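Review this:
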Amino acid sequence: MTESVERYYISAPEVPVPERLRVLKHDETCGLFNDSGDIDAHARHEEGLYHRGTRYLSKLTLKLMGARPLLLSSAVHRDNLLMSADLTNPDLYVDGQIVVPRGSLHVYRSKMIRSDTCHERIHVRNFINEPLDIALTIEFAADYADIFEVRGQQRPRRGRLLEPRTGANYISLGYEGLDGVERHTRLECNPEPHTIGRSEVKLQVRLEAHSEQVFCVDIWCESSPGGAQAARPARSSQPAALAAAQKAQAEQDRLQCVVDTSNQQLNAWLDRSAADLRMLLTSTPTGLYPYAGVPWFDTTFGRDGIITALECLWLAPDIARGVLTFLAKTQAKEQDVNRDAEPGKILHEARKGEMAALGEVPFGSYYGSVDSTPLFVMLAGAYFRRTGDESFMQSVWPNVAAAIEWLERYGDADQDGFIEYQRRSPNGLIQQGWKDSHDSVFHADGRLAEGPIALCEVQGYAYAAFLAAAEMAEVLGHRDRTRTLTDAARGIRERFQQRFWCPEIAMYALALDGAKNQCRVRSSNAGHCLFTDIARPEHATAIVKCLHDDVFFSGWGVRTVADLEPRYNPMSYHNGSIWPHDNALIAAGLSFREDKTLALRILKSQLDASTYFDASRLPELFCGFRRREGKPPTSYPVACSPQAWASGSVFMLLQSCLGVRIDSRLNRIIIQHPHLPEGLDRLSIRNLQVGNATADLILQRYSGTVGLNVERPTGNVEVLLLN
């Protein structure tokens, strides 16, 4: 019998074979366009211009005399600031006669998003030897769909569309939501169009022979509680906005660490990942935070933000500071069953759309993840070791202490020594680990596990969290607390070995169910136990061997579930697919081991996969089918791309293979058992900061070994190579 679809399933309706999706984002606004620069949600349901969780445009199509232009080429520029598309006209007819032959016009569209505005410039050039009179039309519509509606959820009722307001060169569309917020989409054209209607803007273009005209279209997303119209700030033109964005990016890049290699495909993957992370970093009241992914998760997620920060910590510790500051500020202070909140618990996600505001979904400020809280403590400890920033650690220590108290009191509600979860909110998530689809935790016979559920990797996170808190307590002078926390960590590790190890599968069980029975399933979750070092050495060796095996390793990476398991499905979200961040965390568990064969294999396979994805961008996940000669990896149909922890994975993979460890308290960089994969002979890390010092590291691959040169050291920094 087919199981019911979970409540927050992302629908994938039948559509024609899609063009590539082009993504632009800045802060709270993102755009998903087709190759031509159009938006047409009827053709592909996720296309749109979004602001704060609502789609402000569901249609924006350019036509020449009623016909769609022909696509020549399009791309999002490497820095993710600008999308451009080169188009030309098809044969254009009047009364059955061709009046403009195909290829007579060149149309160049460029778009960028800055703050709450999408800027577009349209260049139209006539390449024939006679003048042309062209009707250029922009068709538009705004459905003001909440992102959860776009994902497939049905609402019993919606707000009302407002009567459009027009002026000589603009039209303002509007929607009054059930949450009392008015949302407006304002399209402004320069020069002034010929006509503006309820669903189209028409421009009459007279092009002399070999002449060009430029048209500007600015689209503003505005919202006002209770319909109160806020004063609109002056908007920059696209050239001015682009120049300001490029200047800000150049200043930021000059201060950051740069990784460059002898492998051009790896460089392309690194550059794309860095650009995507810059794009996903979003201004919040507490600083920059990496929003999880476009389009479905373009908001703050606790788990995603923490793991992204951990992936990039060695190169960009400021990301971790922003994540820690935001999550400390939003840490739960009281119990709230409807939000799965308890004192000390760290946020799962926060949404700003109409459905969240009305409580139609519980995610306005939702705490239903079991791992965000221990991961928060882990990140705090790792950030301190990386930066030595004692004053910041002092400021977040109360939040760390509250998180530890949550682990001891609420995370282990039955006081059996394991961290467990069970949904309390009737509308919340059933599964609350990183694999949060409803069918992701099951037994060896395929039965779904009943809660409360204790996941294996979460016990590892808790173990590492207690050790990190003990280290911070020691520095802050809380000696008694240090001993208590260290003892607690030791107890977790001992209990974990006794209850989770499964000799028959040579791995840790995926989970313990509510009756404390093992879910004896081979899963990538056990690989995270290498990352947190909760695994015994002999168990770690057995897990690595399993993950190397073909039942796990597809040729493109490690699957989430071995293909022997009853719920294995390479096309599923969590039961057989391949997630870049999952692979990176597994590899991170091998960082300081001499044998890094698995880490190198993961890096090489993910690098190979990146060659097949558009712009070398690894998506959130892809299907777990076995790699075959000449066949690319298989895409997952509704994966976020870009996605923050997928973008960060390459940096953690490199760190793992190089064995990089940075301790700013000792002004020390340690390179332990470094390896470079075949095809990568040289790697340079420029401007690596350690406290107030910097150094350039050059690693060169030789036969069977990797050499290290240190160049341009400034300040007091020690670099150690341990082989």
